[in-house]
């Protein structure tokens, strides 16, 4: 059966449908925002985390729905199917290519903003929690800490990231080397499928439950909530965030050694390494640009044990006791989000980042062998071509629990054999009507990516789904969708890079649960087509 594109009626038809289709027994009504409403742009821009997609020329939804009840999400699915509307679902708005609130397919679309569906329920006795898709990581960590200082969850560090998308793409963070990804620790979920049904793990089936944990849930439905298996954390963790000048020989030696050791050290230690340029004043009082190497870490234990471990594994860093701070596990996320002036845990409940975010573009790779020293210096030297501090390269180590889980356990396949993930990033401040600046920065990061080709994974050149990158390929939704080859062949260009051979299982799951490709975007899993 070939997919056919529904005929879009009018916004009024859709809105009328929404007004009459909710099955909720509550008196609450869907909060629908259209461009004529004063709240529309406030709601739309509230969690656009990449200003590259907030310009007047960016495609806009003809409506934004902010449901307060699950039945209102069902109503959006029902009305969208009838009236030929595509759906974008937004939890925290951190999709790197804006696909949770932008469509580049020249079709009418509606955004479901899940912010109001953000409850967190923690069961300390069973070491589990239910979290709705609209909650942020900060909210999740805060609510866990309210109930227990010795329970945590292995997910990302950025407190404003929404759990809906983060978990469905994998979810890497400071605990991942010890406990795996967020998706590795999900034990149940509630999802609305293309038929508008509310399904849990038992009713959705194990294949769909497998697919939404690392395969991008937006291809299969709308996740309402996740059930998490919480993990034990110590009463005290130790953090540090130290910077060293890369031009010093000891730092170069340290960075090269980090490549071979960061994935193999004690699983209680996870050290992120990043590089960017910075302004510095030399001894003569002259300003110069230097390349900083930043070592940011959480050790799940006390400072004494950490210092012993660092002296053994990374003595070149010369880590000092005064550079380390002991705190609770949840306080470490306050620290890593740049709140370092005695702020309370309440800052984790904010949906606003604690630092300026310009328009940005990011790309990523997996590294299987240490990058040679000359190539490493060549990579980092390219940071000088960008404005000071605006280009950024970050390395995230693998190893530990990540290596113990098979590539096919969930769709996320980047397991044993990888030393680390590298993310390339550049941001800039948009100027109205100036598209040249954007092109310059995009060109720079693509040149950097090309330069790295010989030094990263091959066949496929793998990348992390949560570091979304449309450069590696897109679905041709407006093109020929009547051919299985065009459909699957085109999607496999990018799909294998994200999921390796798991891509083909994802296609089969998609074919079973959404054969008409209702849930679709520029990088969504396509169904097999039959004639």
From TrEMBL:
Domain of life: Eukaryota
GO MF annotation terms: FAD binding; oxidoreductase activity
Annotated SUPFAM superfamilies: FAD-binding/transporter-associated domain-like
Keyword terms of this UniProt record: Disulfide bond, FAD, Flavoprotein, Glycoprotein, Signal
Record flagged with keyword rRNA processing: no
Pfam family membership, one: BBE
GO biological process: cannabinoid biosynthetic process
Keyword match Zinc: no
Cofactor(s) needed for function: FAD
Domain FAD-binding PCMH-type as annotated: residue spans: 57-233
Alphabetical list of InterPro entries matching this protein: BBE, FAD-bd_PCMH, FAD-bd_PCMH-like_sf, FAD-bd_PCMH_sub1, FAD-bd_PCMH_sub2, Oxid_FAD_bind_N
Gene3D superfamilies, per the entry: 3.30.465.10, 3.40.462.20, Uridine Diphospho-n-acetylenolpyruvylglucosamine Reductase, domain 2
Family, per entry: Belongs to the oxygen-dependent FAD-linked oxidoreductase family.
Protein name: FAD-binding PCMH-type domain-containing protein
UniProt source species: Ficus carica (Common fig)
């Amino acid at each position: 059966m070939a997919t056919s594109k529904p005929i879009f009626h009018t916004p009024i038809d859709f809105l009328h449908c929404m007004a009459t289709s909710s099955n909720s027994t509550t008196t609450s009504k869907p909060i629908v925002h259209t461009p004529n409403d004063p709240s529309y742009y406030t709601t739309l821009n509230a969690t656009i985390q990449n200003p590259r997609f907030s310009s007047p020329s960016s495609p806009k939804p003809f409506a934004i729905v902010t449901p307060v009840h699950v039945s209102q999400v069902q109503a959006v699915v029902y009305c969208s199917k009838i009236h030929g509307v595509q759906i974008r679902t937004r939890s925290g708005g951190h999709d790197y290519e804006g696909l949770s609130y932008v469509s580049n397919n020249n079709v009418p679309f509606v955004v479901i903003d899940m912010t109001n569906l953000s409850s967190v329920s923690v069961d300390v006795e069973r070491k589990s929690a239910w979290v709705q898709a609209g909650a942020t990581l900060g909210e999740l960590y805060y609510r866990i800490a309210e109930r227990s200082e010795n329970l945590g969850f292995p997910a990302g560090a950025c407190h404003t990231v929404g759990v809906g998308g983060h978990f469905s793409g994998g979810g890497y963070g400071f605990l991942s080397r010890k406990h795996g990804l967020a998706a590795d620790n999900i034990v149940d979920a509630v999802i609305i499928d293309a038929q508008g049904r509310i399904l849990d793990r038992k009713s959705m089936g194990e294949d769909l439950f497998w697919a939404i944990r690392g395969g991008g849930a937006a291809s299969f439905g709308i996740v309402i909530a996740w059930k998490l298996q919480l993990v034990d954390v110590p009463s005290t963790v130790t953090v540090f965030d130290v910077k060293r000048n890369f031009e010093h020989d000891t730092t170069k030696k340290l960075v090269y050694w980090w490549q071979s050791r960061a994935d193999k050290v004690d699983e209680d230690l996870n050290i992120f390494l990043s590089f960017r340029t910075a302004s510095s004043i030399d001894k003569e009082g002259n300003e110069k640009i230097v390349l900083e190497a930043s070592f940011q870490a959480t050790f799940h234990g006390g400072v004494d044990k950490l210092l012993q471990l660092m002296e053994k594994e990374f003595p070149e860093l010369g880590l000092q006791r005064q550079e380390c701070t002991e705190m609770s596990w949840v306080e470490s996320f306050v620290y890593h989000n740049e709140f370092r002036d005695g702020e309370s845990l309440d800052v984790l409940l904010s949906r606003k980042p604690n630092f300026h975010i310009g328009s940005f573009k990011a790309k990523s790779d997996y590294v299987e062998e240490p990058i040679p020293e000359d190539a490493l210096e060549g990579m980092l030297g390219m940071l000088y071509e960008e404005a000071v501090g605006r280009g950024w390269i970050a390395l995230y180590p693998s190893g530990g629990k990540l290596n113990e889980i098979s590539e096919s356990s969930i769709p996320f396949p980047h397991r044993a054999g990888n030393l680390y993930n590298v993310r390339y990033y550049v941001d800039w401040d948009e100027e109205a009507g100036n598209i040249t600046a954007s092109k310059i920065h995009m060109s720079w990061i693509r040149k950097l990516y090309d330069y790295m080709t010989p030094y990263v994974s091959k066949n496929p050149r793998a990348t992390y789904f949560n570091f979304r990158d449309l450069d590696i390929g897109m679905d041709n939704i407006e093109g020929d969708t009547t051919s299985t080859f065009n459909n699957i062949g085109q999607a496999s260009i990018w799909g294998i890079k994200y999921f390796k051979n798991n891509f083909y299982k994802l296609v089969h799951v998609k074919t079973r649960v959404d054969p008409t490709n209702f849930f679709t975007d520029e990088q969504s899993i396509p169904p097999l087509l039959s004639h």
